[in-house]
From TrEMBL:
Residues annotated as transmembrane: none
Pfam families with a match to the protein in the record: HTH_PafC, WYL
Domain spans labelled WYL: 154-219
The name this protein goes by in its record: WYL domain-containing transcriptional regulator
Species annotation: Cryobacterium adonitolivorans
Top-rank taxon: Bacteria
Limits of the PafC HTH domain: 12-134
Amino acid sequence: MNAKPVTLGASDKLTFLLSLVPFLMDHDRVSVTAVADHFGVTPERVRDAVNLIAMSGVPGETRQYLHGDLFDIQWDEFETNDNIVLTHLVAIDDSPRFSAREAAALIAGLQYLSALPENGDRDAIATLMAKLTRSSTGAPSQLAVSRTDADVAIAVIQAAVRAGTQVEFDYLNSRGTAQHRCVDPLRIESVDSDWYLRGWCHLREAMRTFRLDRMSNLRSTVVPADSHDDGVLLPDTLFEGSADDLTVTIELPAAALELLADYGPVPHGPAADGQLSRAEVRVSHFHGLKRLVAGLAGVVTVVDPGLARQTVADWAAAGAARYETSAAAQTEQADGAPR
């Protein structure tokens, strides 16, 4: 049942007019009836207000109201179809606005955020993107954040969290061992470009962290997840050590220790040259050092044990060899090309 339209006093009429213009700006095309329902007034009151707005403006340098100094609407739409479409704004358009490039960057960021599980109100994000598109100084470039395998996995896990059910998947750990896991999903976090699921692993009967790109055959089940309200806490750090972990000594600038906070580095004191610091980190396998070193190339040096150094050195040499092979192939192709 529609609410009875209210009677507007002089101050209410002014408030209505001041509220109507921003509302129309936020809607490219809106019917008189929709506006009346939104503000709780009669359609006749809306039509009178629109006619008044169309005769309002700010005088130009000549101190006269010329056509460009007044608001304008699509009169055919208004008179024939009872729709309101603003086509020209005055004064309001003088406020600072995002450039087309700035709006495109913000829209791309919002598209990315809308894929994250903690951002469930996608309608609000879509509305904000539409406002950015309309209010920029030019049409933003058509950008889209590509959907990756991680996005698909996040969507599956998010659905399981909403439903309060377990997820199951095949997981390849850092040692290269594949196992089937059933997990109560609790949180999804990212480190750089990598995404991780944190939850209660029923195989290990403990909290575990899983990299999404090592999962396969991920699916949501109908098995209810446990409540975990009995004192089981989710650790603050992303990576938790275990009794099977290996200890590695590394060298790096003291200021860079904070970059390894998730690895829980234990400072060892200054290195021999006095300019670097040594620290111990724990990894599940020496191959796990590859990502650490690659992420901080030129910053972290593996010192001990020798097998850890050799593992990283072999990996780096294999990568360099691939570049050399590729460069040699390009040179041969160039030498054999017709001149």
